[in-house]
Amino acid sequence: MANIKKLYREWLSKQPLEPKLQRDIDQQFMVDFNYNSNHLEGNTLTYGQTKLLLLFGDTIGSAPIQDYEEMKAHNVGLELMKTVAKDKDRTLSEIFIRELNQTILVRDFYKLNRDGDYRYKIKVGVYKSRPNSVITPSGDIFDYASPEETPSLMNDLLNWYRTEEERGFLSIAEVAALLHYRYIRIHPFEDGNGRIARLLVNYVLYKNDYPMIVFRADDRKNYLDALHQCDMLTGKNPSDGAHATLEQAKPLVDYLSNMLENKLTAILKLVNGEINSLVEAIDTTNQDILKAGKYSTEKDEVSEKKFTVKFTVKFTVNQEKILAMIEENPDTTVSEMAVKILISERAVKKNLQKFKSLGIIERIGADKNGYWKIKNE
Fold first, then answer.
1. Which domains does the chain have, with CATH numbers?
2. Number of CB atoms found within 10 A of residue 216's CB
3. pLDDT of the chain along its 377 residues, tens only?
4. CA 120 to mean position of chain CA atoms
5. CA-based diameter of the chain, in Å?
6. 173: closest CA among 139, 150, 202, 145?
7. 371 near 365, Cβ under 8 Å?
8. What's the whole-model pTM score?
9. CA distances (Å), 186 to each of 132, 144, 161, 190, in order?
10. Which among 182, 219, 220, 176 has a CA at the least distance from the CA of 198?
11. Contact at 8 Å (CB) between 78 and 199?
12. Which residues pair with 135 in a beta bridge?
């Protein structure tokens, strides 16, 4: 915790950032957070598709239309969260959390029950009307709060948060972790609870001028393990989980503290010019990574050569589009890229040559029948 405070003070000393740098940080976080948080819930968009959708409004690929809508709506929810967090006249409330659920889910829809026997209606922004639960790896059913308990437990949660916000006894990581865990044990809505829990963590961070964090899809196991360890400490009674103590939530506190310390360390390196980009996402649907610079917290034991591609290359908008098209369709041609991006074939070829010289891509097979590959480290 002491190191987080030290890093936080240094972060505050750098404010305000130069406008372009702040804009680049915000834009990159937007892509990485939306991509990862939705992938934790099963969204199928690749990282490249997510980037093209959120930055340029393009819907390349054949993913379900619902996944595109879900990603855009989640980004609207992120912006809503940021707006409310900075509004000094608004505090965290049930009305806002309901609004957040309605925003990210867009509209009422139908969903199959666990056994696939029947469909039931998901009403957005409305607390659940039927019990919800999860099946653990051991096959046990782990119940969340009942529909009857939910209103009073949510009221308790928000009263606790507002009281703690005024008292200021807990660290930011402790408040964020307790808010996340207690909320998850209530699971107040039919759908969208995980995404809202992660938005609430960043609500706490953003409101207190900390850099926001990305719950990485490729770290899913450690994230869920932290939550499971909290469950073991609190027990199966939903009400106990909804009133978890700081000690019972310690596994998640430790997990979030580590994430926050790593983020502060990395973003200060970016601000200090030690690295040129910060991307907190790995495409879990396609392990060929689109790299403008994968996020890493590795320190002295890693040679600087390892970071050559990760941190010293900045891409133009057109270059990002070319890489995204290759990631989405390795068979794409120079002509197709030129038409889609609205640049000349000569410009496409020039950029491809640059990527090859930097070791970012390679051509597999002949020019006519081969394909492109984005290279891993």
1. 2-271 (1.10.3290.10), 304-374 (1.10.10.10)
2. 22
3. 789 999 999 999 999 999 999 999 999 999 999 999 999 999 999 999 999 999 999 888 788 999 999 999 999 999 999 999 999 899 999 999 999 999 999 999 888 877 777 888 999 999 999 999 988 767 788 999 999 999 999 999 999 999 999 999 999 999 999 999 999 999 999 999 999 999 999 999 999 999 999 999 999 999 999 999 999 999 999 999 999 999 999 999 999 999 999 999 999 999 999 988 898 877 655 433 333 333 333 222 222 222 233 334 557 778 888 888 888 888 888 888 887 777 888 888 888 988 887 788 889 887 777 888 887 54
4. 28
5. 67
6. 202
7. yes
8. 0.77
9. 10, 6, 15, 11
10. 176
11. yes
12. 141
Length of the chain: 377
Helix 172-186 with 150-167: angle, nearest 10 deg: 180
Asked, as a colleague might, if the bond just before 188 is cis with ω within 30 of 0, I would say: no
Helix, coil or strand: residue 196: helix
Cα–Cα distance between 324 and 327 in angstroms, integer? 5
Closest CA to 294 of 350, 360, 341: 360
φ/ψ of 72, rounded to 5, equals -65, -40
Closest CA to 144 of 155, 131, 157, 128: 131
CA angle (131, 134, 137) in 5-degree steps: 160
Pair 124, 100: CB distance under 8 Å: no
Place of tokens 């990282």: 47
- Do 310 and 293 meet the contact criterion of CB atoms below 8 Å apart? yes
Report the 10 Å Cβ neighbour count for 310: 20
Written as six digits, the tokens of 297 are: 């917290």
> What are the strands, taking DSSP E only, across the chain?
109-112, 119-122, 133-135, 141-143, 361-364, 371-374
Q: Are 180 and 11 in contact (CB under 8 A)?
A: no
Identify the DSSP state of 304: G
